[in-house]
Amino acid sequence: MRPIDIDRVRVLYRNSRNMLIRDELANEGSIDQSAIYVREVIKRAL
After folding, report:
1. SS3 sequence, 1-38?
2. How far apart are CA 37 and CA 35, in angstroms?
3. Model confidence over 3-44: pLDDT tens digits?
């Protein structure tokens, strides 16, 4: 990963065989923090 000026949260969704289904950028924040809500990640996964 290259140096960037903002914090990014990526979510990797996998199936039961541990194969990648989706790679999604969940949120971008400031230089040292980024908020993420578990309920939003679970809602997208289901």
Report:
1. CCCCCCCEEEEEEECCCCCEEEEEEEEECCCCCCCCCH
2. 7
3. 777 888 889 999 999 999 999 988 888 777 788 888 988 888
- Amino acid found at 42: I
Contacts of 37 (CB under 8 A, 6+ apart): none
For the chain, the structural domain boundaries read 8-45
> What phi and psi, each to the nearest 5 degrees, are found at residue 16?
-65, -20
Q: What is the band of 1 on the pLDDT scale with cuts at 50, 70, 90? A: low
